[in-house]
Structure formats: C-alpha cells, structure tokens
Amino acid sequence: MKRLVAIGLVFAMALTALAGCGGGGGGGQTSGGGGGGETDVIKIGVFQPLTGAYSAGGTIEVQGVDLAKKYCEEKFGKLLGKEVELVIVDNKSDTVEAATAAAKLVEDDKVDIVLGSWGSGLCMAGGDSFKNSKTIAIGASCTNPNVTIGNDYYYRICFLDPFQGTVLANYAYNTLGATKVAAIYEATNDYAVGLYNFFKEAFETLGGEIVETQMYQTEDQDFNSQILTVMAKEPEIIFAPGVESAAAIMMRQTREAGYNDVIFMGGDTWETPMLIDLGGEFVEGCIVTTFFDPAAPLNDITAEFVELYTAEYGTPPAAFTALGFDSYLTAFQAITEAGSTDSDAIMAVLENIVVKGVTGDIAFNEIGDAIKNMAVLKTVQNGEFVFMDTVTIE
Amino acid sequence: MVQWPTLYMFLQSMANAISIGSLYALVAIGYTMVYGILRLINFAHGDIFMMSMYFAFYLVAAFALPWYISFPLAILATGIMGIIVERSAYRPLRDAPRISLLISSIGVSYLFQNFAVVVFSGIQKQFPQVPFLQEMVVIGKVRIQVLTFVMPVVTAVFVAALLFLVNKTKVGMAMRASSKDFETSRLMGIDVNRIISVTFAVGSMLAALGAIMWGLKYPKIDPYVGSMPGLKCFIAAVIGGIGNINGAVVGAMLLGFIEIMIVLFLPALSAYKDAFAFVALIAILLFRPTGLLGEKKADKV
C-alpha cells in the first residue's frame, strides 16, 4: 500500500514536471520535416516570463501575441503558405532561466523568429543566444537601451528608457512642480536601475534634487524601513521603478504608515491589472508612463484590436497586450515582405519597414529601436488606469 | 554611511521587527519540531506554507466563505496535508539513510511548486484581506497596524499552547521520548509513527497560521512565495538551535531584528537585506554550531 502511494506520487511528480515544461506552450513539439530545414510550419518563439515576479506582465503580453495570430490568420490567411506555430517558453522571471529558455528556443525548437520578452534584463540574458544563432528577436516592451545595443539581431517596437525617464522627470518638475524626489528602485532589475539613472539625470538637469535613494530586491515584500528612511527627507514624490507587485505593496505600506501626500511615480511596468489587484485603494493617484491608451485609438487597427480584445477577455487591453500584438504584426509583415524566414532577408526588410500597428506606426533606426517619441501618462482612479496626458519629446 | 534614526523611526521599526520576528517564529517551529524527532530538515516546509496560503485564498475566493471560517479550515487542511506528505514521502524511508529523507523532502518541495504553477498558475494573486486588522493605531507619531499587534499575540498564545502540549501532555512526552530514541520508545509502547504524524500535523498547522498572517501583511501569493520565508525560518531555527522550540522563537525574533535594524541603521545596504540572514547563518555555524539554545548532542551509536 505504502509503496503504491509512493509510486503514485512519483508519477504525479513526473506529470506535473512535464506539464510545467509544456505549460501553455500549446504543444511545442512538432518536429516537422527534420531534414533540410524545410518545414511546413513557421515557428514563432514567444519568450516571456509566465511564472515568478514578472508573470503578470508576461502573461498579458502573450495574450496580445495570441490575439494577433488569430487576427492575422483571419485577415491574411497563412504566412508564406504555411501555418504559424507559436512556441511559448517561460523564462521564469529569472536571468539564468532566461538564458536557458532562449537557448532552448533556438537550439531545440529551432524557431524562425522570437518575440519578447517583458523585462529588459531577461531580454539581455537571452540576447546572446539569439545573436549567436542569428535568430531575429523583436522585443515588445523591453525599454532598456542595452537590449539592442551591440546586438544586430534584437529589435524592439517600444520607446526607450532615456526617453521615458525624461518624460517622467519633466512631468514631475514642470507639471507637478516638485523639486524634491526620493527613489526606491529594484536593485536586481536592469530596467529599474537604468530608468532610475535616466530619470535622475533628467531631473537634476532640470534643477530638481534626488534627496534619498533606496533599493530593494525583486521578491522583497517589506519596504517599511526604506519608506521610513526616504520619508525622513520629506520628498514630494517617490519614484519607484520596478516590478509592479513590489510597487503596489510599497504604496500600501507607505499609506499605512501615514504618508498620504507623497505622490508615487513609476514606469511602464506598473500598468498591469496586478498593480490594482494587489494595491487596491492604496495605489490611487500614482502616475505611470506607458505606451498606449485604448480609449484614444490612433488608427483603425487600434479600434479593431480594442474591440477584439474586449470581446475575448472582457476588459480593455493594457499597453503590454497592444505591444505584444504589434510585435507579432511586425514579424508577420517582415516575413511576408522578405518572402522567406531567412534572417538576413528579414533584416534587410526591417531596415525600411513601416508597420501600421495598434500603438502607432513602427519603423526602426539603425540600432534596431523603434522610432517613437510619444508616451502616454496615466494615473489610477477608482481602481482603473485613466488617461492623463500624451507627451511628445522631439 | 550609518544613519542615526529618530526615536520615532526606531519605535516604528521596533514594531515591524517584533511582528516579522513572530511570523518567522511560527514557521521556524515547524522546522525545529520535525528535526527534533526525525533529524530531518524538511525542505518542503516552505512549500507547505505556500500551499496553505492558496488554501486560504481559494476558500475565500472560490467558496466565498468569510475569513473566520476559511482561515481555520485552511489551517486544518494544511495539517492534513502535512500528515499526507509524511506518510507518502517520509514514512516509506523510515529505515533508509537520512540523506534519502532529505532528498525526498526536496522532491516534495519541487512537486508542490510545480503543482501550484500548473493548477493555480504562475501569476500572483492577492491574499484576502480582513479589514479590521488593516486599521491603524496611532500612538503619538507612531502608526501601527492592528495586525502588527495581533501577530505577536497570536504567536505567543500558540507557542504557549505548543509548549504545554510538548511538556505537559502524554503526546508531548511521547514526542520527547521519540526524539531521543525510536527503538526504545517503541519498546515502551509508543506508536512512533502516530507521534511523527502528530508532529507533522502540528508543525504544518503552525506554518499555515504563519502563512495566513504573512498573507495579511504581504498580500502577494505565487507558487514560489514560500521559498524565501522557508529559507529564512530554517536559518532562524538553526540560529536558535535546531531541535529546540524555545530556540526557534529566539532565533526568529533575532532574525527579524537583524533584518529590520540593519536597513534602518545602514540604509545604503537596503538592497542586501536578505543577505544578512545568510551572514547570520554562517556566523552562527562558525562560532556556535549548535545554535544559541541548542545543546551539544553526542551522535547516537
């Protein structure tokens, strides 16, 4: 009897481990023709954090990719006469796991192109694999400059952190009239460290002062000490770039400690339902920069996308979903125009491509970054992200 | 580098340290009890902690039970789960070398984590909140959540109950006897297997209690939420002297203080808060391997 239970348990364990690998991957095992690389499917790798601290962002970005696949199938049919297969891998919100996941995508799954990831640090961890295997990767929401610098194969369709930091600093200094800002940022996240530095530079150039800086680790849940230290310097704004679950808990603990006036500002990572789920009433009034606003369609595709998403999921889409959608559109159009899945051919096309996406027109500069100079500022009101302002910097 | 906090900051941090220390204590006791009897470091303890958070979450979210029913049910369910884990993963290895037990416990830990990813999904969830515990008490300038008062009180009550159980009851006597020597205990008519089951149930239920209060304080749940608290509470148990219940409480309180006070006095090190737990572990292993309250034990021959 005991042995039976033990054996049963071992099987259960093996099963869950297997399921974990395939988790949401929609199979991911079609080995196709095998021989000369001629297969009847085009494999698009989706490289995203589906577990761990960044899973909320990764998951909604995958929703966008999924939706775009359906949209393209309906509108354009097959891609180069072939079916498209999404190979979704979980990079587990961890840079070591991300490197492994990226290697798996290019070596085992032999995908033709990669989309993702949420989180610049994860992109950088996977970047070498894509570069060495000459696989093109299109980042949807990774904003740190270092993702594409020195990597010819990495492209991205969103704005960059130097821009985002400037937008936030301008808003803090000019619109909110703040001169004293404190920062509490995620020390183990390349994105957060980068954004903090760009913000600091821009804010100090404007004449403001960073009065105190504190850090935390991705999985931290207690920020009381940091909050006390920071609030002793009486800042008007706390700038807290980093993962949204930490930010939500930080805001909760700040309000609970009785600091009701200080304004929280953060970057694009905050705009997920998770921030509001975890933070509740405590995140009201925080200010974020993001890429896109579903309430103000930029073009007819935006409207179509918002309608599609709302029909499928019942809520308006977040910016990450829109970018996920656009990353697929970009890959689809690039492969169509190139007429093959050969990386060199796609790269040649990407040089001059203009993709009409839901977040606006996408074109790339010589580094591989999208030429975008518009950011949307949002705040939380009554448990929802509300549009505040659009900022353009020339 | 060193920041001298104001009295107000110090008192506020003190309250935080006591509440976090009492959380650690509840979980550390589970490690120490299991070690005391089986000489096993139960690596699955942190994941039992995680599962109990999900139990509480689903009892509230899916069955719409009020917290005062669902939390005790979650604690009970975790206790039963502790017994099942012991029966299926540890009992078959009772006569195997100790290292096999250790490996089995690591297996259980991964099983739970992967199970949670598959069944509950990897996306974080919000732990149900109890409004009156979130209210603030204001004493002078110091603002303290009701929960912060509740946590040490709950911990004290349950630790007292546990000490009573271990020191004054028949089951407790059997536990103490089993921790000394299985064979002799069996000869004296003690059902050692039953006692071990009880130990696991009690340890798991205390972990569940800790998990629920953890969730009330830090409302994020994900499948890996138990790993850091698990590690830290293990460290707390070692600092206090693993195998000793009083030691686990002392170690946990000390760890809570170290973590909070280091960040308060040395704000530049705020990002390395977790590292200090491990530094403390290394220090204690170097200078007092049996822990603060641990007794030196001769190996059984």
Structure in words:
Chain A has 394 residues and is an alpha/beta fold. Chain A has 2 domains: 40-159 and 299-363, Rossmann fold (3-Layer(aba) Sandwich), CATH 3.40.50.2300; 161-290 and 376-392, Response regulator (Rossmann fold), CATH 3.40.50. Helix content of chain A is 44%, strand content 19%. Chain A has 12 helices and 14 strands. In chain A, the strands form 3 sheets. In chain A, strands 7-6-8-9-10-13-14 form a 7-stranded mixed beta sheet, sandwiched between helices. In chain A, helix 11 packs across helix 12 (343-352). The relative contact order of chain A is 0.13. With 301 residues, chain B is mainly alpha-helical. Chain B has a single domain (7-287), classed as ABC transporter involved in vitamin B12 uptake, BtuC (Orthogonal Bundle). Chain B has helices spanning 7-38, 45-61, 67-90, 98-120, 131-134, 146-168, 170-180, 182-187, 192-217, 227-240, 245-265, 273-287, and strands at residues 125-126, 136-139, 142-145, 220-221. In chain B, strand 2 and strand 3 (142-145) form a beta hairpin. The chains are: A alpha/beta (394), B mainly alpha (301). The interface between A and B is large, with 47 and 47 residues.
Key structural traits:
heterodimer; A: 394 residues; alpha/beta; Rossmann fold; seven-stranded mixed sheet; five-stranded parallel sheet; 12 helices; globular; B: 301 residues; mainly alpha; ABC transporter involved in vitamin B12 uptake, BtuC; two-stranded antiparallel sheet; two-stranded antiparallel ribbon
List the topology elements.
The complex is a heterodimer of chains A (394) and B (301).
Chain A: H1 2-22, E1 41-48, H2 55-76, E2 83-90, H3 95-108, E3 113-116, H4 120-132, E4 136-139, E5 154-156, H5 161-175, E6 180-186, H6 190-206, E7 209-216, H7 224-231, E8 237-239, H8 244-256, E9 263-266, H9 273-279, E10 287-290, H10 300-313, H11 319-338, H12 343-352, E11 355-357, E12 360-362, E13 374-381, E14 384-392
Parallel strand pairs in A: 1-2, 1-3, 3-4, 4-5, 6-7, 6-8, 8-9, 9-10
Antiparallel strand pairs in A: 10-13, 11-12, 13-14
Helix pairs in contact in A: 2-11, 3-4, 5-6, 8-9, 11-12
Chain B: H1 7-38, H2 45-61, H3 67-90, H4 98-120, E1 125-126, H5 131-134, E2 136-139, E3 142-145, H6 146-168, H7 170-180, H8 182-187, H9 192-217, E4 220-221, H10 227-240, H11 245-265, H12 273-287
